[in-house]
UniProtKB/TrEMBL annotation:
<protein>
    <recommendedName>
        <fullName>6-phosphogluconolactonase</fullName>
        <ecNumber>3.1.1.31</ecNumber>
    </recommendedName>
</protein>
<dbReference type="InterPro" id="IPR037171">
    <property type="entry name" value="NagB/RpiA_transferase-like"/>
</dbReference>
<dbReference type="GO" id="GO:0006098">
    <property type="term" value="P:pentose-phosphate shunt"/>
</dbReference>
<comment type="similarity">
    <text>Belongs to the glucosamine/galactosamine-6-phosphate isomerase family. 6-phosphogluconolactonase subfamily.</text>
</comment>
<comment type="pathway">
    <text>Carbohydrate degradation; pentose phosphate pathway; D-ribulose 5-phosphate from D-glucose 6-phosphate (oxidative stage): step 2/3.</text>
</comment>
<dbReference type="InterPro" id="IPR005900">
    <property type="entry name" value="6-phosphogluconolactonase_DevB"/>
</dbReference>
<dbReference type="InterPro" id="IPR039104">
    <property type="entry name" value="6PGL"/>
</dbReference>
<comment type="function">
    <text>Hydrolysis of 6-phosphogluconolactone to 6-phosphogluconate.</text>
</comment>
<dbReference type="GO" id="GO:0016740">
    <property type="term" value="F:transferase activity"/>
</dbReference>
<dbReference type="Pfam" id="PF01182">
    <property type="entry name" value="Glucosamine_iso"/>
</dbReference>
<dbReference type="InterPro" id="IPR006148">
    <property type="entry name" value="Glc/Gal-6P_isomerase"/>
</dbReference>
<keyword id="KW-0808">Transferase</keyword>
<dbReference type="GO" id="GO:0017057">
    <property type="term" value="F:6-phosphogluconolactonase activity"/>
</dbReference>
<feature type="domain" description="Glucosamine/galactosamine-6-phosphate isomerase">
    <location>
        <begin position="12"/>
        <end position="237"/>
    </location>
</feature>
<dbReference type="GO" id="GO:0005975">
    <property type="term" value="P:carbohydrate metabolic process"/>
</dbReference>
<keyword id="KW-0378">Hydrolase</keyword>
Amino acid sequence: MARQPNLFAFPSVDALATTLRAYIISCQTAGLHRHDSFKVAVSGGSLPKTLAHALLVPPSSAEDTVKFDKWEIFFADERAVPLDHEDSNYGLLKTELLDKIPEEMGKPLVHPIDVAHLDDTQELADQYEQLLVKSFAQRDSVKLPIFDLLLLGCGPDGHTCSLFPGHELLRETAAWVAPIEDSPKPPPKRITLTLPVVTHGVKIAFVATGSGKKEILKKIFEEGAGLPCALVNEGAGERCSWFTDTAAVEEVSFPRRGSL
Ligand SMILES: O=C(O)[C@H](O)[C@@H](O)[C@H](O)[C@H](O)COP(=O)(O)O
């Protein structure tokens, strides 16, 4: 049973945000202990808004402090568009979270894509991989970058990052960051962390809320079916935690937890 992911279900997004905050802060503490910074990868969708909800409230104690000046934020996936484009995950994070961080909470170091390479997604991916190589260089002889935390969403089809069901990218084992030119969800051109990088994170957290997720969550937890989110569950086991609301897990019989 030790290899199973954790499934947390909360009655409201408010309750979810409180526990998600405590979880993120425990990952932050571990990251600071390991290398005096907190290396996080984030995806798009509704996640940045939920993060703002969880993180931008005053701390209840010294231990409860979000130390944004120690954060290094990377993108789990990004669309090949300018940073101020409405499809940009960076743009979304900026509007929903970064621009709202009060000065006294500190400023994270954020790593957007290099927009000089928007016309060449292979180069865009390679450049982002080089950024990871530099950033994770001190990490002994590791063959993969090990994020302290990856914060991910789950699409209604079971995709996560820009790893889509049945796509050949799911079999990528060499690259850390890969291009995709035929994303079934627009826009088609993107880059994404690959499955080995995602599953090697110290911790991986999914945030999935609302009744629109109930069918796919049932499938992920009860059938697996090779869905990208299920592959992350299988690869990461107990290092993976799902933060959901009751509407999203209504049909899931997998054992749930209410607290960390
Ligand atoms: O580029 C994408 O396709 C999104 O970033 C995607 O990975 C997102 O995280 C999920 O679709 C969940 O989206 P919601 O959180 O909005 O349900």
